[in-house]
Amino acid sequence: MELFVDIEKKLADFTLKIKFTTKQGTLGLLGASGSGKTMILRCIAGLEVPDKGRILLNGRVLFDSDQQINIPSCQRKVGFVFQNYALFPHMTVSENIAFGLSHYSQDEQRKKIHQYMKIACLVGMENRYPYELSGGQQQRVALARALSTEPEILLLDEPFSALDVHLREQLEDEILALLSAYTGSILFVSHDLQEIYRMCQQITILEQGTQVEIGSKTAVFEQPRTKAGAKITGCANITGCNLMLKNQIQVNDWGCVLDIGQAVSNKITSVGIRANHLRFCDQQDLPNSFGYQIKSIKEMPDKIILLLKITEQQIVWLKVEIDRQYWQNYSEQLPPYVQLPTEKLLLLA
Amino acid sequence: MTADLTPLWISLKTATMATIMTFIIGIGAARWMVYDQGTNNPFIDGIFTLPLVLPPTVVGFLLLLFFGKYSPVGQVLQYFGVSIIFTWMATVIASTIVAFPLMYKTTKSAFEQIDLDLIQAARTLGASEGRIFFRIILPLAWPGIAAGTILSFARALGEFGATLMLAGNIPGITQTIPVAIFFAAEGGDMEEALFWVLSIMTISFIAMIALYYWNQINHTYFCRSNQRGA
Q1: Could you say which of 1.10.8.60, 1.10.3720.10, 1.10.10.10, 2.60.40.420 is the CATH number of the domain covering B6-229?
Q2: pTM for the full model?
Q3: Which helix (H) or strand (E) covers residue A31, if one does?
Q4: Residue range of the domain that includes A135
Q5: B117 vs A contacts (CB less than 8 Å)
Q6: CA–centroid distance for A115 within its chain
Q7: Nearest CA distance, B145 vs chain A (angstrom)
Q8: What is the pLDDT of residues A104-131, one digit of tens each?
Q9: Which of A75, A80, A129 comes nearest B121 by C-beta?
Q10: What is the number of other CB atoms lying within 10 angstroms of the CB of residue B102?
């Protein structure tokens, strides 16, 4: 199973330009709303035509602007789960699933419908109409309908966005179980980083139609290489910096010089640190530790968010996230120093 | 009281035939405009809608020119020994043309309201365009199509101006109820005119009641599914 995509398409606000290859497993496309994620899926499914480039699925050319090839959607063997599920409102659940199976005999159709109803835990709902189902059930019908055609790749367009937040995690588990039987590759689009982290092995990050990061999810989340990548993976403190010595950077917005441990290339333009990676400590002699003033305290159900001022020259406060339990253990009197651990600094191009 | 009921039969026959024709042509034209044309062409849309806003006499006059002896179409027809003007076919053609915009407009707006995702989902499931049209588009647009059909029938039944221009007033052949009313009233036979007035009111009223109940049946199902879709 291999999908190769290298396309360009001019959109209203920017030009979508992306190139990637994905093999077995789930590739997540992460990006803010309007970064062109959905457009990529639509181009792969043949619902939109790229301006130029190539799309290959398992060696089959789906689109090639040079050779003027553009296989119609219905022949691409691509499963698409729409954001709003796009179930046919005038058909029952089993009719919805049967719609993609018309080339099978009646008998085989019945067998397949039953098989996928079972996989999607929908047995007993054969004769219900989409409006009689809950959001989660509708989603499973949409998935069963897409999977029943045995597509070579499954495209999921923000499949959880139409659901209540408290339902999502439970449904993610159900969907992961449902998808575990599927052997093709999966392309998963989302703007929710938690969700994409849980669902995917590989991640690519998009900003304004350009791909800024690609790699395994741990690599992308732990060591993003670009500012956009750090931002979208949830890094709260990002600012510009200047390389001073081989292993020191000057950060004007924070009014400090930081030790970065290793020698780095000159391309580094920004530095970041995640809000939960700052540490409080009792000694001042640790690298990158500072005394601080608390500028504001925001209480969340499970955590506390602090804004810290660490130097006199500082312009932008540092955002720190700590566990509520940790906060209570210190009965709201934290250790006097805060450290920006060298190994947790994100050096960004 | 008149015993001659031919205007009633001619009217019903004409309206039914014209409805069948507008049904097919109207749906075809709406499909072509919404799904086959890249852009919604306002020029063509305007031409399709014109019979709705033009005085029926103008439509009748244009049809006379179109089918007349001196037009290319008229000459071709004459060559084959077919004459349209002042025949029953003429009443059907006049009614069809005048009723067409109603069918076309209602069907087109019903098509435009269908969620494009549904059509695209069907495409990714391997369905051909024909299958999508008959299994997805037509069923979902059906309430609109049915309304358009009933309105077209009522309009075809009431057609007067274009019919008179193209088909004339030949009792037993082209004399429909509206034409009969005009000539009865003009000739001073108010009783006969009133009889036909009441009968056409009854038929049209029944058609509108049918439309109302049709909408009621579809209302429950479509309202519910639309709420979810939002």
Answers
A1: 1.10.3720.10
A2: 0.82
A3: strand A26-31
A4: 3-223
A5: 82, 84, 86
A6: 31
A7: 16
A8: 999 999 999 999 998 888 999 999 999 9
A9: A80
A10: 24
